[in-house]
């Protein structure tokens, strides 16, 4: 189970990485049910990325996969083509969502948005490492 204290620690670690690369981000942490525990919008981060970060966390938990990997399989002709239209539009197929694991079990997810896909993923990895 991810607590609010855990979520704050994850967000703080992600914020450090975002500051290192000079890209303000929106960072969301979801629980095992895909529900939002905590969200932070760094100063200067795009308001349009708030929703995206939350949905990346949801997507990553809903399918227990990094959104970067889901994106690869959801392109035209891929096995998950069209998946973004499922779950009432809550599925994001951009890099930046990563499942959070404890003892090999998925207990939640982090979603990051505000930079390039590579930047979002790197910041999410930094946050996930704090768990």
Automatic annotation (TrEMBL):
InterPro entries listed in its UniProt record: GlcG_carb_metab_protein, PduO/GlcC-like, PduO/GlcC-like_sf
Gene3D superfamilies hit by this protein: Haem-degrading domain
SUPFAM superfamilies assigned: GlcG-like
Name by which UniProt lists this protein: Heme-binding protein
